[in-house]
Amino acid sequence: MSHSRWKSLRERKLAEGLTEPEDVAEARREIRLSMALAKAVHDRRTELGLTQTELADRAGLTQAKISRIEGSDTVPTLPLLAKLATALDATLNIALDDDDTRVSFTAHDHAA
């Protein structure tokens, strides 16, 4: 089933008053957060012109770990997030709300 077909089926069921089980809704929230982080890491890494291997070296991680983060296959710990932010020369910003998750990196300004 294609993503768009699955999404429209889900939306139709919700419009009919059917609700998702809480565990499914929680899993969906976790996936959204993981995907938002993955995109933020990828975007900042490519903005800096780094490969996954180069970012891994800067952060003291393996390329496979960076790949898993960018692939939404893992949710890193806070210490690992701090390493990533340092390696990406940025501040990590995470805003969590019920249905709104925003993750971004803000580049450090070194022109002082």
From TrEMBL:
Pfam family, one: HTH_3
PANTHER family linked: HTH-TYPE TRANSCRIPTIONAL REGULATOR (PTHR46797), METHYLPHOSPHONATE SYNTHASE (PTHR46797:SF1)
Region of interest called Disordered, as start-end residue ranges on this chain: 1-22
Keyword Chaperone attributed: no
Domain of life according to the entry: Bacteria
Protein name: HTH cro/C1-type domain-containing protein
Keywords: DNA-binding
PROSITE patterns reported in the protein's UniProt record: HTH_CROC1
